[in-house]
Amino acid sequence: MPDGTQKTRRIPTFNTLARENAFRNPPKEGSTYSILNEFVASHLESFNALFDDSGLPSGDGDGRGLLSLALKDVGERVAFDGDGKVGSESGPDGWGNRMRIWIEQVTVARPMVPEKDRTARERKVFPSEARERLTSYRGRMTVKLCWTDISGQRHEMPKDCGLLPIMVRSVRCNLRSMSSAELVKHHEEPEEFGGYFVINGNERLIRYLILPRRNHVISLLRPSFSNRGPSYTQYAVQMRCVRPDQTSVTNTLHYLSNGSAMLRFSWRKQEYVIPIMLVLKALVGASDKEIFEGVMMQDYENTFLTDRVELLLRSFKMFTMQTGEQCLEYLGDKFRVVLNLPEDWTNAAQGAWLLKKMILVHLETPREKFRMLLFMLRKLYSLVSGSCCADNPDSPQHQEVLLPGSLYGMIIKERLEEILNGIRMGISMDVRNGVAVDFNDKRYFQKIVSKVNFDIGAKLSNFLATGNLVSPTGLDLQQASGFTIVAEKLNWQRYISHFRCIHRGAFFAELKTTTVRKLLPEAWGFLCPVHTPDGSPCGLLNHLSRSCRITTTPLAVAHIPALLAAHGMTQVFTPKIDGRKNLSVQLDGRVIGWARPSVAAQLATNLRIWKTEGKHEVPLDLEIGLVPVSNGGQYPGLFLFSTTARMMRPVKYLGNGRDDQVGPFEQVYMNIACTPEEIEEAVSTHVEHEPTNFLSILANLTPFSDFNQSPRNIYQCQMGKQSMGTPATALQHRTDNKLYRLQTGQSPVVRPALHNTYAMDSFPNGTNAIVAVISYTGYDMEDAMILNKSAHERGFGYGTVYKSQIIDLKDMRGASKLTSAPTLHFGLANDIRTTGDNMHTCLEFLDLDGLPFVGARLSSGDPIAAYVDDTTGRTKFVRYKGDELGYIDEVRLLGSDAGDTELQKIHITLRITRSPVIGDKFSSRHGQKGVCSQKWPAVDMPFSESGMQPDVIINPHAFPSRMTIGMLVESMAGKAGAMHGLAQDATPFKFSEEDTAINYFGEQLLAAGYNYYGNEPMYSGITGQEFAADIYIGVVYYQRLRHMVLDKFQVRTTGPVDPVTRQPVKGRKRAGGIRFGEMERDALIAHGTSFLLQDRLMNCSDYSTAWVCRTCGSLISLGYEDVTLGEMVVGTSKTLKPSGPGGEYCRVCRAASEEEDERERQALATGQHLQRPQADITIPISSQHVLNRASKGGDLDVVAVPYVFRYLCAELASMGIAVSLEVR
Amino acid sequence: MQSHDDLEPTVRIRELKKDRVNFVLGNVDLAFANSLRRVMMADIPTVAIDMVEIEINTTVLPDEFIAHRLGMVPLMSSNCDEAIRNTRDCTCLAGCSFCSILLVLNVGCHDDTTMEVTSAHLDVIPYPEEGLETQDSGEELSKRGEYFGHPVGKNEPGVAPILICKIRKGQELKVKCVAKKGIAKEHAKWSPCSAVSFEYDPYNKLRHTKYWFETDERGEWPTSDNGKEEEPPRDDEPFDFNAKPNKFYFEVETDGSLGPQEVVMKDFSNFITTAGSSRTTDKIGQPHPRTQNTTRG
């Protein structure tokens, strides 16, 4: 200021203007909130890694993409034109000419407009188009198929593999590296971060899945192993070995009770076990001595070990195979039938191939595999002897993540393999069937190829759309479905948490034991302890902690063995290593040397210093797992991991104050202080960057969560995801099935620091409400809350539901199956009068093109579209089916891919207004949910001295048992923040016992003229009298949850009934009833309220009256005579047939009586009727003149029975069981 | 307390501003004071837009939001009692010049900047002639002020209008609104007050309440400004359990549709007319015991 006075300007804390400016003018470079791109990085980068031009660091490899690596691993298939009969004309060994077939190159293009369309000027297709047109976002995939002819000449042909779904914002996406401004231009959110696929207009993503840690031997103790066969025990060691192309093979080494071990692997979903000795010998042709020394490692005093190894060696004697070659031939011979390798390969070659492809596939050379197998054996024996414990496969220490891109690549690889197998099969089928096979004829090859399904794109679309994995090998995964989920944009919180969720596996969901669901201390910092759903997926569906990331790039570690050797590690090939004194040093499941424990510890420290300081080119993401020697603990060693798909998180290394990345394997043996104050000298190795880093993003957003009882924070993580909020800002470009939107979202006064970091204010999720904690009207009992009617009228919690309706004329009745000439067209035919006085009523809603007006107000049954049927020439209407009032918000005309067909499909967004009503659910951010029970008039609401009236009243009983002190603190902080215009920082762990939150906000409140603890004297709105107690009132951020009565209420007086039982049907949609079940029945019986019981179970259900025969008691033998003619029906014997007054009779009894009658008559006629007591005179009197006789079969009564009872009687009758009722 | 039963009720205005009045009401009892508060909040009629006919709406906001926002705009409503009828009491079928006011809003944006549609764009238009004028001989029209029914602040310089919607080039909003008389019991938009503060007994001498405190009552409970008006209690003062509150501190803040003095005056008169029917000779503010509970306006 010129006059020297300081103009005091407060620093804005809500940043409203800055945010508005950023929203209106999105940055032209980069994005508004770059952190949002970081947390989906693993999704994107793992997808990018498929391609050669991924832009990721190459590590030790040549930087080729996973697809290229997969092609290398797939190799070639060989087909022959001979049938293998020796001596036939096709060559000496009968196989004839050899054709090699392989795929040389896979290319995936960016999504483009098809060539057919010549009018489009922008050839690129963007995700918003796929979303709005309800199609998939796909790019063309082509392969280069190569084969050789008889002369060995190489031929190639490009082959189209269909349209492959492309991950949004990946390297193949047209939105790649767009700035916020460009994204907005392409109808995306300015914060769009991608990581998902668009399939049929839905956003679907591949969920992270927990897998066993790759290339690391874990020891297992499973009682179920002993059921695998005779002499199998519960002990095993297992290793999930991963090839460079991310496909994996699990090798399990089982301990047998006779001391030997069996190696198990699976090939095409079939499990095979091989004696370990066979493998050891086949690999390097090892002598018995070599194996003995390799396992013993000079520990000759260990009789346990010597006994076992002796047994192991002895057990192999019965195979009588001495050399490695013999073993290979034996293996090849046995596996020849299943492997489907070229028929001209020798057994030894097939055996070698098996070892290469199935045993320890992460290792290249047989010698390395041999060393690793010896290590596995040692670990197995150590486990059996009890000198080391079993590893916990449920602990994140032994887990890694299945990345979306890796899974995608695996499926593509398998499909490519299947294509090659298909071609080979096609040729051999032709050979077998005697079809002319000519390898020199290009057309023949083309004919074979045309029979094979090349459409990989459709397969992957199906995979993404359903989440079902159709695979002949099972991809070494434990489940075949549930891989993909829809990224629901219910609100922003739900949306972003999809990208951070990580599932344990569908297999574990069915497990009865709950051990897998346990929260383990090893998960600290990697999986959020708070953010997991309650209910069935609890503990199985976790979310990554905020700072946890998943490595996606391979590291350059080729120089590490030499580096370690230079610093004291014994080289791996050194003979005579003392296993008692040396620890194994392994890098990614490869034994690279040995070191004494002290040396190993020193090496680990050195590596950590080097990697944090960037020396010796040790990568920062290297995981240095030093397992120290212990008594019966985890098997010791120095295990280094550099591969992808590991969880890592940043902490600070105390040794040099640098940033470090730690993984779950090494973290177990570290001492990481949560705060700088907690650092203990000589104990702590690391310190957290932030004490809140172990929480997930959502858990971090709960204000003052450290004040709450922990389950309440879990509930809030659930409810935050269910609240009505702002799902997207590009709402007019969304076609989601159902979107919930809160009209008056606000920025919370009280929010943790991360609220800003994660752009939560761009997608507000609730409103700041004045909340009084008072038991006021009785309508706030049992978690109900009272809304201020005036606040409601001013728009508190006003929400909108957007629903989609798709009208596709192809699916309508009368549509022609031919795509070329549709018979249905949108529009009005001549039968609709469009002008004049008696204009058709549909014109209130529809325009002349048959499409609805935007803004039209619809109630149930109103037309929303009209179309003309060519065949009848009449107009048909599509009607609005919802029960609620809806408005047409948007009408979208959907064309075909090439844009050259007539309009057949429209998408309508309906807007349904949802003002809060009694019964709608609200919650604070502390797991305190409640239902609105009344809208209370403002004059009757309690008020404070300053005239403030609460928007919401909640009952104080909501607090004592739930202990959500965070909500009380939020109330205080919100009140102070509102008075002073401050956004209050609610980050947990900011306050301490000495510096309490209560005092901090109490001072602020006092400064604003309020009571220190947030209480206020309040007055009854009805009498004006001051309440005897002062009331806790403050500002709390309230969320409106999506559960609304309008979607849930179910009432019925009368309505549809089940045709069989005549009982009311169930189901809200069908206007059904709510079952009055057994327990409810019990209650009525216990109360003795028999009238109610009768009413519920009989009168209001399937009450019916039925004729029951008094004679035989049957309910189901009713017959009717037509008595309207006023005549008695006379039977064949001229007797009057017995029937009731209405002509009803019992068919059974009448038949019986007629039969008896007939019999008596005949007896009378033949004079054999002698049994009767003899009368003096016998006069044949017709039965109609005998009293009481006629009633037989006609004596029926009406009783009230449940209709199902009759049904039951009929069913029983069909089984030959008669039900007889006694009528009194 | 027989002593002030005989006293006349007093109103002492401490502060009167354009949109607020601060006064002390004395020598009345609690029920009366609270009734005044309630009447001010919910029973003073004003006019507010009640029906919106949307002709063109190409803004980003849907029709119902616009209608809601228009309804919340305060309209000048002075002398509402005489200047306008309730539609339900009117002889007309669905609205006439005696019981409603027509406002139109017709805005389109034709340049590249974002345009703000505000309450200032709302114009009152005369009711179209219906030919019924002769039958109805209401004198309401003559009682209306110059700006009756106009949005608050429209004709005053320096008052920012109320934002209704923002539009960009090519968007348009054309609506016809019908404003009607109503009270806040029906809908909050008809409330002339934004807040009514109400206090008595700042030192809690009557012990109606109990100030909860952790350690120190004085330190944790700041006294309100109204404490200056009364003697702080001496520590040895005996508790007078017969005492009744008789001094009430009010502050009424309006939304501008009515002036604060009009709200309060209307409040008193309204109260008298409604309560008066059952009252005979009692003085204002000391209702007859029989009528004490029936004074809800």
Automatic annotation (TrEMBL), chain A:
<dbReference type="GO" id="GO:0003899">
    <property type="term" value="F:DNA-directed RNA polymerase activity"/>
</dbReference>
<comment type="function">
    <text>DNA-dependent RNA polymerase catalyzes the transcription of DNA into RNA using the four ribonucleoside triphosphates as substrates.</text>
</comment>
<dbReference type="InterPro" id="IPR007120">
    <property type="entry name" value="DNA-dir_RNAP_su2_dom"/>
</dbReference>
<keyword id="KW-0804">Transcription</keyword>
<dbReference type="Pfam" id="PF00562">
    <property type="entry name" value="RNA_pol_Rpb2_6"/>
</dbReference>
<keyword id="KW-0808">Transferase</keyword>
<dbReference type="InterPro" id="IPR007641">
    <property type="entry name" value="RNA_pol_Rpb2_7"/>
</dbReference>
<feature type="domain" description="RNA polymerase Rpb2">
    <location>
        <begin position="486"/>
        <end position="550"/>
    </location>
</feature>
<keyword id="KW-0863">Zinc-finger</keyword>
<dbReference type="Pfam" id="PF04560">
    <property type="entry name" value="RNA_pol_Rpb2_7"/>
</dbReference>
<dbReference type="Pfam" id="PF06883">
    <property type="entry name" value="RNA_pol_Rpa2_4"/>
</dbReference>
<keyword id="KW-0240">DNA-directed RNA polymerase</keyword>
<dbReference type="GO" id="GO:0032549">
    <property type="term" value="F:ribonucleoside binding"/>
</dbReference>
<dbReference type="InterPro" id="IPR007121">
    <property type="entry name" value="RNA_pol_bsu_CS"/>
</dbReference>
<keyword id="KW-0539">Nucleus</keyword>
<dbReference type="InterPro" id="IPR009674">
    <property type="entry name" value="Rpa2_dom_4"/>
</dbReference>
<protein>
    <recommendedName>
        <fullName>DNA-directed RNA polymerase subunit beta</fullName>
        <ecNumber>2.7.7.6</ecNumber>
    </recommendedName>
</protein>
<feature type="domain" description="RNA polymerase Rpb2">
    <location>
        <begin position="1072"/>
        <end position="1118"/>
    </location>
</feature>
<comment type="similarity">
    <text>Belongs to the RNA polymerase beta chain family.</text>
</comment>
<dbReference type="GO" id="GO:0006362">
    <property type="term" value="P:transcription elongation by RNA polymerase I"/>
</dbReference>
<dbReference type="Pfam" id="PF04563">
    <property type="entry name" value="RNA_pol_Rpb2_1"/>
</dbReference>
<dbReference type="Pfam" id="PF04561">
    <property type="entry name" value="RNA_pol_Rpb2_2"/>
</dbReference>
Automatic annotation (TrEMBL), chain B:
<dbReference type="GO" id="GO:0046983">
    <property type="term" value="F:protein dimerization activity"/>
</dbReference>
<feature type="domain" description="DNA-directed RNA polymerase RpoA/D/Rpb3-type">
    <location>
        <begin position="20"/>
        <end position="274"/>
    </location>
</feature>
<protein>
    <recommendedName>
        <fullName>DNA-directed RNA polymerase RpoA/D/Rpb3-type domain-containing protein</fullName>
    </recommendedName>
</protein>
<dbReference type="GO" id="GO:0003899">
    <property type="term" value="F:DNA-directed RNA polymerase activity"/>
</dbReference>
<dbReference type="InterPro" id="IPR036603">
    <property type="entry name" value="RBP11-like"/>
</dbReference>
<feature type="region of interest" description="Disordered">
    <location>
        <begin position="275"/>
        <end position="297"/>
    </location>
</feature>
<dbReference type="InterPro" id="IPR011263">
    <property type="entry name" value="DNA-dir_RNA_pol_RpoA/D/Rpb3"/>
</dbReference>
<dbReference type="InterPro" id="IPR036643">
    <property type="entry name" value="RNApol_insert_sf"/>
</dbReference>
<keyword id="KW-0240">DNA-directed RNA polymerase</keyword>
<dbReference type="InterPro" id="IPR022842">
    <property type="entry name" value="RNAP_Rpo3/Rpb3/RPAC1"/>
</dbReference>
<comment type="similarity">
    <text>Belongs to the archaeal Rpo3/eukaryotic RPB3 RNA polymerase subunit family.</text>
</comment>
<keyword id="KW-0804">Transcription</keyword>
<dbReference type="Pfam" id="PF01193">
    <property type="entry name" value="RNA_pol_L"/>
</dbReference>
<dbReference type="GO" id="GO:0006366">
    <property type="term" value="P:transcription by RNA polymerase II"/>
</dbReference>
<dbReference type="InterPro" id="IPR011262">
    <property type="entry name" value="DNA-dir_RNA_pol_insert"/>
</dbReference>
<dbReference type="InterPro" id="IPR050518">
    <property type="entry name" value="Rpo3/RPB3_RNA_Pol_subunit"/>
</dbReference>
<dbReference type="GO" id="GO:0005665">
    <property type="term" value="C:RNA polymerase II, core complex"/>
</dbReference>
<feature type="compositionally biased region" description="Basic and acidic residues">
    <location>
        <begin position="218"/>
        <end position="231"/>
    </location>
</feature>
<dbReference type="GO" id="GO:0003677">
    <property type="term" value="F:DNA binding"/>
</dbReference>
<dbReference type="Pfam" id="PF01000">
    <property type="entry name" value="RNA_pol_A_bac"/>
</dbReference>
<feature type="region of interest" description="Disordered">
    <location>
        <begin position="218"/>
        <end position="243"/>
    </location>
</feature>
<dbReference type="InterPro" id="IPR001514">
    <property type="entry name" value="DNA-dir_RNA_pol_30-40kDasu_CS"/>
</dbReference>
